[in-house]
Design brief:
The chain has about 675 residues and is of the alpha+beta class. The protein is built from twelve helices and 40 strands.
């Protein structure tokens, strides 16, 4: 029999039934931009009231040194308050560094045209051990080479000095950068000192003699910081440079080779490595001129997190990298908990459930289908011109409590021919993946969409079954590769509601009936040709799943199944869950419970449990009221591992302003999710 029939869909603006009386609560909704800076616990008010110009953390004594003008205040990590204040001889402190065991602190600073000062103090009692002063200069950066008992200092006049760490006597000095030496980093194992300047150059010097080794000239603007990579980042010394050309670059200082770089949306000012000891690939936190903190994976040059609201000055890490302390124009710093790296979600080894990959914590899906906007446009229709709207929508979905977003990619928008993908569409999808990583939302990526018939290529409909399957495999390989094995990919959903029709259909008649202006159901064959329908479904699923797994991508694979996919009398899709289960990681089914058959719908849900986790990939109070749907999801929680409803780009406050019944229902549902 032909299994295509009109399928009810959740575009609530078009189709709403079985309404119940709704109480519209007053809700004040603040649009959520990006993860905000943590405000608690509050620091005690620093004793100094001038802006913070430098921060340094002592892991041995578990306290901070905060430079304010010529003074240093000490904030205790344990009791979380400012405990002492010390004065220095620097008119303005520019940089601070502790030695390896935290027993000594080096302070550099000064004012242009006056005195550049380097001072060495004991910590935490702050006794002056040594002092070095150079008239008419100021010192901007310092690095401490504990292994060779040396201190390297960069000066505004352009001089690079190497001082003895005991008495601050000069070992050598060079005129490094004529317009100002602004950065310095020592590499003891390579016997090198690196300097950076306002002339955009990075220069490497012999640590023992101060003779020049090489110059690196790829930057196009001044250098703001140099720092070495931690031991667990690479086996050999590597160097990171920050520049006012808005790039962060990774180098091999021994050869001068540029390894890779990433370009940011704003000038990077300060950077610190993430110090979690179990991190195999440490991330770099970068504070930028636009006031944002960006967490960068320099091995892939991707931005893992983007935090809004930081200040335009220095920052440092707390104990074991668990906190960032940020301060600047305002003397009162803010503490930011460092979020752990996003973990991939996988199927648990001990049962049909989801867990995080690294620490095996249980994960239940709670999310939204982000299939179109409030006027029915698909995401690819507007993501080139209105990307900011998509960014805002992701943040709004996160604010509503989602951990997963289901996006729908159209075949015709991604493939120029059966073998040639569209690089611009793939690049935009890569940006979407990065947005998911920044907002810490997992993506259920559903592909091969043909929702708008006008966007379906004529050549695609003209393909034979085998050719069409091959083109679909090419689509998936291109899309999966563009995601670069991101941990933000929850799953690859091969197709939304595929069906195997019985008998034979007309040539090119691949789509089911339209619902409104969209075709959500799609055929994978046109001629049954005496083949069992479930076997066709199984072969198709195997082919596409194999194409994805051949890319080496570890994300889970599923298929979005209509609720009439079970082997029961009457209408069926041909996609029987037990027949395709060996080729997917979990079962995704779509279910809109009816008020008058909730028990039957619960039985249907349980019918999809075939030894794999089950999620309800589509649900909405379409044929039931809000309380009934919420109770259905909660009361049958043991039968599913989560659910995905719908979000069409309007916040609860925006829906309240629309003054329509569909908007009121959607708003009430968003405010009362399970």
């Amino acid at each position: 029999m032909n299994c295509i029939s009109p399928y009810r869909r959740t575009h609530v603006q078009m189709y709403v039934t079985n309404l119940v009386a709704l109480t519209i609560a007053i809700c004040t909704f603040t649009p959520f931009a990006l993860p905000a800076l943590a405000q608690e616990p509050e620091l005690a008010e620093p004793l100094a009231q001038s802006p913070t110009t430098a921060l340094v953390y002592n892991s041995s004594t578990k306290n901070w040194g905060l430079a304010h003008g010529s003074a240093i205040t000490v904030w205790d990590e344990t009791c979380q308050k400012t405990v002492r204040e010390f004065s220095t001889n620097c008119a303005k402190i520019h940089d601070l560094k502790f030695n390896e065991d935290g027993s000594q602190l080096i302070v550099v600073g000064g004012e242009p045209g006056e005195n550049g000062i380097v001072e060495l103090y004991t910590w935490p009692d702050f006794q002056l051990l040594a002092k070095r002063q150079i008239p008419g200069d100021t010192f901007l950066r310092v690095d401490w080479d504990v292994e060779n008992s040396s201190i390297a200092v960069a000066s505004l006049a352009g001089t690079l000095l190497l001082l003895d760490a005991q008495g601050l006597e000069s070992r050598w000095e060079v005129e490094a950068h004529p317009n100002g030496c602004t950065a310095v980093q020592i590499f003891p194992s390579a016997k090198l000192v690196a300097s950076g300047g306002n002339d955009a150059a990075i220069r490497l010097w012999n640590l023992d003699t101060g003779t020049p080794v090489r110059s690196l000239a790829q930057h196009t603007a001044g250098i703001s910081q140099l720092l070495s990579a931690p031991d667990n980042f690479s086996q050999s010394p590597q160097m990171v440079s920050l520049s006012r050309d808005q790039t962060v670059r990774l180098w091999d200082p021994q050869t001068g080779r540029l390894i890779r770089f990433t370009r940011l949306a704003a000038v990077p000012l300060e950077a610190q490595w993430e110090l979690e000891p179990d991190t195999q690939s440490p991330m770099l936190w970068v504070l930028c001129e636009d006031g944002r903190l960006r967490r960068i994976d320099l091995k892939t040059t991707t931005i893992e997190q983007d935090i809004q609201g930081a200040v335009d000055a220095t920052f440092a890490f707390g104990q074991r990298g668990s906190n960032l302390l940020v301060a600047g124009i305002r003397p009162k710093p803010q503490r930011i908990p460092v979020q752990p790296p996003l973990q991939r979600i996988k199927v648990a080894n001990d049962g049909p459930k989801f867990v995080t990959e690294r620490d095996a914590q249980a994960f239940r899906v709670k999310g939204f289908n982000y299939d179109h906007d409030s006027v029915g446009r698909l995401i690819e229709d507007y993501w080139n011109e209105q990307w900011t709207e998509i960014e805002n929508d992701f943040c709004e979905m996160q604010e509503l409590g989602a951990n997963t977003v289901r996006v729908h990619l159209q075949f015709g928008k991604f493939m120029k021919s059966s073998t040639e993908p569209d690089p611009q569409a793939l690049a935009k999808f890569s940006a979407l993946v990065q947005l998911a990583e920044r907002t810490r939302l997992y993506l259920d990526v559903t592909g091969l969409g043909c929702y708008h018939k006008k966007d379906v290529p004529t050549w695609y409909d003209a393909l034979s079954e085998a050719e069409r399957w091959e083109a679909q495999a090419n689509f998936w390989q291109a899309v999966v590769t563009a995601a670069q094995k991101s941990p933000a990919i929850f799953c690859w959903d091969l197709m939304n509601e595929p069906v195997v029709p019985g008998g034979k259909r007309n040539a090119g008649d691949w789509l089911g009936p339209a619902f409104g202006d969209k075709h959500f159901v799609q055929c994978i064959s046109l001629d049954q040709a005496n083949r069992p329908r479930p076997e066709i479904a199984k072969a198709w699923t195997k082919k596409l799943a194999t194409a994805i797994r051949d890319t080496g991508d570890p994300a889970m694979i599923t298929v979005g199944l209509v609720d009439w996919s079970l082997n029961r009398p009457g209408l069926t899709s041909g996609f029987e869950p037990d027949k395709i289960a060996e080729h997917v990681d979990f079962i995704a089914m779509h279910l809109y419970p009816k008020s008058d058959q909730l028990a039957k719908d619960a039985e249907t849900l349980r019918g999809f449990r075939v030894g794999k986790p089950v999620i309800i990939e589509e649900c909405f109070p379409l044929r039931s009221n809000i309380d009934e749907l919420r109770n259905f999801l909660n009361e049958n929680a043991e039968a599913h591992e989560g659910w995905i409803s719908f979000y069409w780009g309007s916040t609860p406050q925006e829906l309240a302003d629309q003054k329509t019944l569909p908007a009121a229902i959607t708003r009430e549902w968003l405010l009362n999710l399970p």
